[in-house]
Every structure is written in C-alpha cells, then in structure tokens.
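Posted in: Structural Biology > Protein-Ligand Complexes

Title: Requesting predicted complex, farnesyl diphosphate in pocket

I'd be grateful if someone could produce the 3D structure tokens for the following input. Sequence and ligand are given below.
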Amino acid sequence: MPSVAPSAEELLAQIRIQGGVPRHVAIIMDGNGRWAQERLMPRPYGHRSGMKAVREVVEGAVESGVSVLSLFAFSQENWQRPRIEIRALMSLLEEYIAREVNELRDRGVQVRVLGELDRLTPAAASAVERVVVETEHNDRLQLNLFISYGGRAELVRAARLLAADVQAGLLNPDQISESEFQAKLYTADCPDPDLLIRTSGEQRISNFLLWQMAYTELFISPVLWPDFGRRELFEAILDYQNRERRFGRVPA
Ligand code: FPP
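-- Reply #1 --
Done. Output follows.
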C-alpha cells in the first residue's frame, strides 16, 4: 500500500508530543526568482508569492510554540539588484504590513525590523514604524524582519558602538567581553537561533547572523520559498527535535 505523507496537523501533534521546540528559528527565504522563472514570470511575481509563505510560516511558528522567528527579507547585497526589483520588494514590504498588521497584532506577534533602515524609502520606513509601534506590547511570538541587513556590517556597527563607549570613558578595552559585544548587536535581547532553515537547496549562510549562529543547527530544504509553508516548517522542527546539540562538548 503506498504510504501517505503525514498532514501538517499530524506533524504539529508530533512536535507537541516530542517537546524541545526550538526557541528561535531563523530562515533564509531563498528561491523566489527561480520559482517565478520556472513559470516564465518576472522575478517580482516570485517575491509576491513568497509573501504568502511568510504568512504561513508565522502562523506555524505561533502554533508550534516557537518564541522568536527571524526572517532574512532583504540583504545589504540586495541593493545591487535591478531598480525595478528593489522597488517591487519595497512595495511588497509596505503591502505585507498594511495587510497583516491587524492579524499580527491580534495573534500576539511582536514585530521588530532590524537592519540599516535609513536606506528604506520614506513610505516603507513609515510602514515599518507603524507595525513596530502597533505590535510592541505583544509577547506570543517575536518576529524579526531583517531588512537592509548584513552580518558583517552588524559586527562593524557593534565595534563602532563599543569604540564610542571607550572614547566616552564609559568602558575600558579590557572590559570588552563576549557579552559586552553581544549587547551591541541588533539582537541584543534575543536568544541565539537554535535552528536555521534555508530554502531552495543552497548551502550557504550568506552573511546572515554571523555572530549569533555559532552553534545553530542547519536545515537545508530543497523547496523554493514560495512553496514553503506550515508543513515544511513542521518537518524542519521535527528534524531539529531529533538532533543532539553538544555545543562543542562530548555526548551526555
Ligand atoms: C530570495 O530569493 C528572496 C528575497 C531576496 C526576498 C525575500 C522576500 C520575500 C519572501 C517577500 C516579502 C517578505 C516580506 C517579509 C514582506 P531570490 O530572489 O534570491 O531567488 P533566486 O535565488 O531563485 O533568484
């Protein structure tokens, strides 16, 4: 008899039985362009379809009890894409916020937007401000949207902030520890990601959360981002739940 793949609901039930849900899941949402090209459509069509996947994954994260979800939505390198694609991504961000802000607020999602935000268009910047303010008191799921973000730039920024503290006489160079450094990152008050999911089969970190991912478990999915949903998220979480994390130590 052919075996039937378990449904999303069955996978969710299994996650709950198993326990040990990752506290923080980070995702590199890759493959929108290829998904559109496969359909002979322009790349922005793939990004638009990717927005639906964002919605599903946020829903799945809330249902499975993840506390922090970090999505890499726009990298600093993405500013080098054709102007038409950048414009499409900026207006999708505005559209996503306009459409989802009420539901995000009602579901208890706190949205944070992290990166070099002074490069955003004024309309995108005010949409970002709106969703951050309207959801700031929520605490069911923290949704970090990384926009105009690069891991190396974040590290340089942290070094600058520490140097400014030293110059102001607030800190002695000998006092700079890992925790002082961590305190200057965008993710200062966030646990490090337990699980990184990258879609579309690529096996790279692509300048995402370089400091924070020192001990993160990696899950590479062959699925292109627009086809990723609750079911695929639950499969990744179940895979994570079966791993042994040793953080450089020997097995217990
Ligand atoms: C990578 O695919 C994806 C992006 C650069 C953008 C991600 C944006 C979204 C999922 C939609 C909007 C999201 C929010 C939160 C509003 P790619 O274009 O590099 O794909 P490719 O590798 O197939 O070319």
